[in-house]
Design brief:
The chain has four helices and 28 strands. The strands form seven sheets. Strands 3, 4, 5, 7, 8, 21, 24 and 27 form an eight-stranded parallel β-sheet that branches. A six-stranded antiparallel β-sheet has the order 10-19-13-16-17-12, with no helix packed on it. A hairpin with a 2-residue loop joins strand 16 and strand 17. It is mainly β and 382 residues long. The longest helix is centred in the first third of the chain and has 16 residues.
Length: 382
């Protein structure tokens, strides 16, 4: 428990719950009570963070959390177009009305998407496919894989657009390219820092001669037996049997970043790293930085103003809300999803995505909390 990142995780979790930091399991807290406690403290000096403050110039200043230089992560670059940019209002280029047939509804929607995908893009956006009010029946996902195409309903509330799940289990929406590929370029440069703090954006490599500002790079850290043991990941048990889902040496944690500046063997990244690199827990594998080229990643795709209707647990089919992967600068906005076993999945090749006003709700007591199947949001990516 003396490792700073593990201690920080417990401290932050306890701070959110208004409790002292302990090794006890996290406990759920009522949302309304949490909000009220925050409102009661708002405006008092004691409630202001010691580690994140207004820098007086419209930004945030970060103080180190410890002697290692770990800082709270700066999420200023998260979301559509890297944050601070409004979602686009794509002009309507095609309209689809419900047919009453699952096969026809999906075919009509996909035909309209293909039509819009063939239009020229303006600032990366081609246009929106508007779904008229009513119920559309779906036996498989709506595929949004072309740059600049938006799927827009006529509202997520009463009188709006409803996508109703039919047939075998499936996700309702699929946003992103058909398949992304990250191709390494040149040789990887070893990270030379003995300790690279969490929340920092500078690092030293063995040789920075192959890097220049603007390079897209992969920052990698390989899992080690020491790190797995530190995180108690070698102590997992399911159904009375040991469970291991991270093996030493064959699991890479990868951060996709852009080189902002090079000074000697020091690289400055455009976005901070969200975890530390401690040579004492890397088992000799260390970390590395390598240039890469990406392909197969779609962009400027969104789904908005829709209601989605699944089935309660035990109905014989498990439906999901949406999968977002191989996608940059995409979004879900104003999505009301009811009775879905699985929720929103953001895959490893998702980046700069915004999920705004996405609500998942269930009929009373229809959520099966046994096992590890059901979830609301599963987030990977950058």
């Amino acid at each position: 428990m003396n490792h700073p990142i593990k201690r920080l995780a417990l401290t932050m979790a306890a701070a959110l719950a208004g409790q002292a930091a302990t090794a006890a399991p996290f406990q759920a807290i009522r949302h309304d009570a949490f909000v009220q406690s925050c409102q009661a403290l708002w405006g008092k000096n004691a409630a202001r963070s010691h580690w994140v403050k207004d820098d007086g110039q419209g930004g945030l200043a970060y103080a180190p959390l410890n002697s290692n230089g770990d800082r709270i992560m700066d999420f200023s670059s998260a979301g559509y177009m890297g944050g601070g940019v409004a979602l686009p209002a794509a002009p309507v280029k095609a309209t689809v009305k419900p047919s009453g047939s699952a096969a026809s509804d999906l075919a009509n929607i996909q035909a309209a998407i293909a039509k819009v995908a063939a239009l020229p893009a303006v600032n990366g956006v081609r246009g929106a496919v508007l779904l008229a009010p009513g119920v559309f029946l779906l036996e498989s996902p709506i595929q949004l894989a072309s740059d600049g195409v938006v799927l827009r309903g006529s509202g997520s509330g009463a009188g709006g657009t409803v996508l109703k799940a039919q047939g075998a289990g499936h996700a309702m929406l699929s946003l992103g390219g058909a398949g992304a590929s990250l191709t390494p370029i040149g040789s990887a440069a070893a990270i030379a820092d003995g300790y690279l703090p969490s929340g920092g954006n500078t690092l030293h490599v063995s040789d920075a001669s192959g890097f220049k500002p603007g390079d897209a790079v992969m920052v990698r850290r390989r899992a080690s037996a020491e790190w797995i043991h530190l995180m108690d990941m070698d102590q997992l048990v399911r159904d009375g049997k040991p469970q291991t889902w991270i093996n030493a040496g064959n699991n890479n944690e990868t951060w996709l970043r852009t080189v902002a500046a090079v000074s000697g063997n020091q690289l400055t990244l455009d976005i901070p790293l969200s975890d530390s690199f401690d040579s004492g827990y890397l088992g000799g594998n260390g970390g590395s930085v390598q240039k890469y080229a990406a392909s197969g990643i779609a962009s400027q795709i969104g789904a908005e103003h829709l209601a989605l209707e699944g089935l309660p647990n035990g109905s014989g089919a498990d439906y999901g809300v949406a999968n977002l992967d191989n996608l940059a600068d995409g979004w879900l906005n104003d999505i009301q999803a009811h009775n879905f076993t699985n929720g929103v999945v953001v895959g490893k090749q998702g980046r700069r995505l915004t999920l705004e006003k996405v609500a998942l709700n269930h009929d009373h007591n229809n959520v099966d909390c046994t096992g590890a199947k059901a979830f609301e949001f599963s987030i990977a990516g950058s």
